[in-house]
Every structure is written in C-alpha cells, then in structure tokens.
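Much of the work behind modern protein science is quiet bookkeeping, done one molecule at a time. The protein below has been through that process, and both of its lines are reproduced in full.


***
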Amino acid sequence: MQHVGYTIGMVKLTKIYTRTGDSGNTGLGGGERVHKSDLRVESYGGVDETNAVIGVAIVHAGGGVGEAGKMKVLLESIQHDLFDLGADLCTPIKKDEDPAMVLRVTQGQVDRLEEAIDEWNKDLGALTSFVLPGGTALASSLHVARTVCRRAERGVAGLIEVEPERTSVLTMMYLNRLSDLLFVLGRAANDGGKGDVLWAPGKTRETGG
C-alpha cells in the first residue's frame, strides 16, 4: 500500500520494500504505528482498491474520444482525488495540526462529484427496475468499481464510528457520492442507459405446481 508518511509537497519513494511491516504493523502518516488489521488501515486500503478498479475502467474507456473520452478524463481526475483521500485517512486528525501541511479532502471535491452526477444523469432514461451489472465492458467495469467503492465507504463509516474526532466525515461523503457517480457512468456507458440490463424479479422461480 502506497500511503506511508505524507506531508504536502514532499513525496519521495526510494525503496519498495522496507521489512518494517514484517511484524504485522504499519506506519500511519503521523508516524503512529498500528496493526495492519486496524480499521484505519482497512479504510485507506479500500480506497486503494477503488482506485485500482477505476484504473481498469479507464483502460476500457479506450483512446479518449467522444463520451468515453470525457468519462476517461473524469475518472483520471478522480484517481488523484482518491490518493488525496487515502492520504487523509492515513493521517489521523490532530487538534493542533497545521492545515497547510496536512492533505485533507475538501467540500469542493465532494461538490464536484455532485455536479458530475447531475451532468451525466440528465440525459439518461428513467429506470423501471434495478440495474444488473453488465452490458458493455466499460459499464461492467464501472459497476465493479461502484461495488468496491461502496465497500470502502462502509469501512470508512466504521472508522468514523470508533474514531470520530480523528477522521474527517468528508472522506465518507466523497466515497458516497463517488459510488453514485460510478452507477450513473455505468448507465451512460450502456448507450445512455438504453443497453442497461434490468432485474426481472422472480425470473428464475418455478411457476405452477
């Protein structure tokens, strides 16, 4: 996992393995060491997974033309946001921290996702049932990203529950909006929703008898 000690303006990776985690512990952004099963480590690990599967969606978006090209640019910007979010979670909030030296997710980043949701959703047809993951390769990869993002959101929600004063609620808000956006983008990638695979309740149930 790439989120080790982080200070704004200072990122330097010179060695990939350090052996410092061989005992099952890892270092947070402020220097504190915790077990790798710690909720905080699990939380930013979930964000890292989300970023990785979005990378797969970017590959499926192709060479960057038309709607897929616009989607690719948006997803690439979100990958940068997710590194910000991971750095935020990796560094527990301190009452005396210097805002200029600690990277935190901002309300503006959350607002930008809401604007993107509205923009991409406005031309989609109304849903008459729940959408099954599927359709195009791009849509399917976006649905995978959505579910991984939801899991990351649940992890952050659990962290906020046990460490509310050390964790920014904006991290959970960002992931919540992101999962909604990934759902909308998945529909957009299915020919504006026309190619959505819809759930047919009870489709495989036995009838009669």
